[in-house]
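Q: Given only this backbone (191 positions), what sequence would you predict?
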């Protein structure tokens, strides 16, 4: 038995790539509607109604991505010297979520909020050139509203990408549950 990664399977032949692409396009899984989760603490003695209301706390805080507003200095960075394949004078668009997390204290409850995009915007499949590797076809999912590009972890490892495991984003998966990403990659050449 031979085991191949998705990238290796795509590289075998055009026919294999066509079959895999057709199978991936035919999947349509609608996410379940889950907006909030509530937790209630259980005590040894029976609590009063007031105690239940006071201890039942909302676990998730949601904020629409269009409600995040930052000054222009926090959105763009001008590169002063050549680095990572970028030339001096180039502008790099910074991540709104990262800028917000740097602005929020670690103990503040807003730090663990879920940022949601507008419901009317769909996801797009894109095939970019990532990390200057022109010979690979990498399928990525782009959420154009929040400007997040999601790539499978095995593919990211195969491309030699690293990520910061401290900066994670909570996202809804195809089954409707909320899960955190593995981390955030920064300043990866992407065209």
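A: Predicted residues:
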């Amino acid at each position: 038995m031979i085991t191949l990664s998705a990238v290796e399977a795509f590289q075998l032949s055009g026919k294999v790539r066509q079959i895999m692409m057709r199978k991936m396009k035919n999947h349509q899984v609608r996410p379940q509607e889950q907006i909030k989760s509530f937790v209630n603490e259980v005590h040894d003695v029976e609590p009063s109604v007031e105690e239940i209301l006071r201890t039942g706390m909302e676990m998730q805080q949601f904020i629409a991505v269009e409600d995040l507003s930052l000054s222009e200095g926090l959105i763009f960075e001008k590169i002063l010297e050549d680095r990572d394949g970028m030339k001096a004078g180039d502008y790099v668009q910074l991540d709104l979520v990262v800028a917000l997390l740097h602005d929020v204290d670690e103990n503040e409850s807003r730090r663990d909020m879920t940022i949601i995009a507008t419901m009317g915007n769909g996801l797009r499949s894109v095939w970019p050139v990532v990390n200057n590797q022109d010979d690979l076809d990498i399928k990525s999912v782009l959420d154009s509203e929040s400007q997040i590009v999601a790539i499978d972890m095995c593919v990211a490892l195969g491309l030699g990408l690293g990520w910061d495991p401290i900066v994670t984003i909570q996202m809804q998966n195809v089954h409707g549950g909320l899960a955190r990403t593995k981390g955030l990659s920064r300043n990866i050449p992407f065209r």
